[in-house]
Design goal:
Layout: H1 2-5, H2 10-14, H3 18-29, H4 39-56, H5 65-80, H6 103-114, E1 123-129, E2 133-135, E3 141-143, E4 148-154, E5 158-166, E6 174-183, E7 193-198, E8 212-213, E9 221-227, E10 231-236, E11 241-248, E12 251-259, H7 260-263, H8 274-277, H9 314-322, H10 330-342, H11 346-361, E13 373-374, E14 377-378, H12 384-387
Antiparallel strand pairs: 1-2, 1-12, 2-3, 4-5, 5-6, 6-7, 8-9, 9-10, 10-11, 11-12, 13-14
Helix pairs in contact: 3-4, 4-5, 9-10, 10-11
């Protein structure tokens, strides 16, 4: 290959810059993940930059086999990925640039400029579903009353507010009927965008009718409709944040993943955030993670069959929830609690979907399942402490 390249003017061929073109392409694409939604967009930008670089070297590289192989390879890859020849390209200096509208790209740029390898960003998860049950960013699991409008998140980048209404007459248990999300304006990535969902109105667009924020080609913020009127996702690439909203029955559920450093970017006046600090003690229904099973106002004799107004007994509710959830974790017990409280089987689907959202968004698999606690330590998945019929003899005054 070397002797072939030196036929004619060897000095001319040593100035061929194909190796630099290839090195830059590798730098552009080495951090990309094919599983992420913006992979094709970024890969096509890198391919166009690679193509531009080879074109600039076409004269000095005309006798270089590596050059001609690269040109053919670029053409094949652009066809495979449906890349257009015209469009944005990656920077010609990948070591000194970053995409300000890509949170992962921003953290990598900080690593390059700092000279030392920075730890990968830490992501946190928060979810709200059912009657309502809250999983905080600290992986604390709570069941709360929180009737009316409450802030789940309120930081420098994002605000999320939920509105909860009573689900059973005479009970303080509530469920979510309305969700309002404000993506705050950020550099050139997006102007402020407001999203609002209500029962039977789960739009696939922001309040202003748009489906994305900022430059449409970068897709730094956009909405994806998964199931019409029932399930949407919001992807805010510039802050590394993903939001899922579902409607199950008459109520809404929410799940969110966000980088820890952005979650903690708030002022003292913004400290009332259920996802960050949990529910106020006066709003808690559970007792340190334990959910007393409601029996709608009666002390039952030991061993008597419980027939709450919901129409479910402890046995039938347990069987119903076990159909969708095999692991007896807090999601399972929340399902049982909701069925005994409301009699609405849609809450079974809500608990199951909430667990699916955890598996999709929570960064640590070993923390997907949360189990009831006793005396400060974890209780196994078949904990008799939690599911004992003794709970049927309790009247939870705060709940009724």
């Amino acid at each position: 290959l070397l002797s072939f390249s030196c036929l004619g003017d060897c000095q001319l061929h040593t100035s061929c810059g194909i190796q630099k073109c290839t090195t830059d392409f590798v730098s552009f694409t080495s951090h990309l993940n094919a599983a992420l939604e913006d992979f094709d967009l970024e890969f096509c930008k890198a391919l166009r930059a690679y193509s531009v670089c080879t074109y600039r070297n076409s004269k000095v590289c005309r006798g270089n086999l590596v050059y001609h192989s690269a040109v053919l390879g670029i053409s094949d890859l652009m066809t495979q990925r449906n890349c257009t020849k015209d469009g944005p390209t990656s920077s010609t200096n990948p070591e000194m640039t970053h995409d300000p509208c890509n949170y992962s790209g921003y953290t990598e740029a900080r690593e390059r400029h700092g000279g030392e390898k920075a730890p990968p960003p830490t992501y946190l998860f928060c979810g709200l579903f059912g009657d309502p049950h809250l999983r905080t960013f600290k992986d604390h699991f709570q069941t709360c009353k929180v009737e009316g409008a409450w802030p789940l998140i309120d930081n420098n980048y994002l605000s999320v507010q939920v509105t909860n209404v009573p689900v059973v007459p005479g009970s303080s248990a509530t469920a979510t009927k309305k969700i309002t999300i404000i993506f705050k304006s950020y550099q050139d990535c997006t102007d402020q965008k407001v999203y609002q969902a209500m029962t039977d109105d789960l739009p696939a667009a922001f309040v202003d009718g748009t489906t994305s924020g900022g430059d449409g080609s970068t897709r730094s913020l956009h909405i994806v409709e998964k199931v019409s009127g029932k399930y949407i996702e919001m992807h805010a690439r510039y802050i590394g944040t993903t939001v899922y909203i579902r409607q199950l029955g008459h109520y809404l559920t929410l799940a969110i993943r966000m980088p820890q450093e952005l979650v903690m970017a708030y002022e003292e006046s913004q400290d009332l955030q259920l996802c960050v600090n949990g529910c106020p003690s006066s709003e808690r229904i559970d007792q340190s993670g334990h959910l007393p099973l409601p029996v709608m106002g009666k002390l039952l004799p030991w061993g008597a069959a419980a027939h709450p107004l919901s129409g479910y007994t402890l046995e039938t509710a347990t069987t119903k929830c076990h159909e969708k959830m095999l692991v007896k974790d807090t999601y399972f017990y929340s399902c049982v609690f909701d069925l005994l409280t409301t009699g609405d089987a849609n809450f079974t689907a809500a608990a199951h979907s909430a667990l699916q959202d955890v598996e999709a968004l929570h960064p640590r698999k070993e923390h997907w399942h949360i189990f009831p606690r006793s005396g400060g330590s974890s209780v196994g998945r078949d904990s008799k402490v939690f599911v004992s019929l003794e709970f049927l003899c309790l009247i939870f005054v705060a709940y009724l």
